[in-house]
Structure formats: C-alpha cells, structure tokens
Amino acid sequence: MPSKPEAFVVHSLKGRVRLKAPALKNRPKELDHIISTIDSLENVKKVSGNPQTGSILLEYEGSPQVFWNKLRELDVLDIKKAEEVAVKSQLQTVFKKADEAIKESSHYRLDLGTSVGLACVAVGLYQLLRGRTNLPSWYTAFWYSLHFFKK
Question: Record's superkingdom (predicted)?
Fold first, then answer.
C-alpha cells in the first residue's frame, strides 16, 4: 500500500483494543503484514485481524500510554481520533444520501457529481447572460464544472 491505512478505535479497555481500518477490508496480505509488524512489539500479547471487516484486535500488557506510544512509533497505521472519524463519517453519510436521492429522483440518469457540474455550468451561463463578464465568477464556475465532468 502506498500510504498508511487510516484506523480508528472501535473500543478500548486496559489491555485490549479493537481497531477498524476500512482500507484493509478484503486485503488479507496487507492486514497480515500490519499484524505481524504489530506483533513484534514486546508488550503485545496477541494480535488478530479479520480481513472481511478490516478490524484488528490487540491484547497487550502494561501501561496503555506506553502501548499507544509504541504502536504509533511503528508507523504502520494512521490512527485517527474518534471525533475526526465521526465528523468524516457523518459528512460521507450526508453526501451518500444526497447522491442516492438525486439518482432515484432522476431515475439513475444523474448523480451528485454530475448535478454539481451542471449547476456550475448554469451559474456560469447565468453570470454571462447578466452581462457579468469579469473573469472570476463565470470562469470559475466553468472551470469547476469542467473538473466535475472530467472525473
């Protein structure tokens, strides 16, 4: 994998942590590599992973602070704080719902990305028709619409 997969804490008790790494889902080789790397830590008693869910279960001895410091020093996972993951997850949910609503209402002829691109074209045309030919407003709208359609 080119970059470290993001992981977040599902639950944590003293001596036991479950991490979820969505990028490792259905990627057993990458998951095994990370598990074997984590297993090399001296205070880790047991590490197991589930490639179908992308979760990693860790059992360790000693201080939680020492464990977390050593885990971060390994630099194999980008461990996010729960708050960061929650906000990202909420935003993804909002955009997925909006995308699905647009798809359903257009009988799967449009999606969110295409709709935003079309809206940018409409804003650009509107600015031109109003006689606003200064570069930033209409040019920016067309520029963004071009990038939406290129994807």
Answer: Bacteria
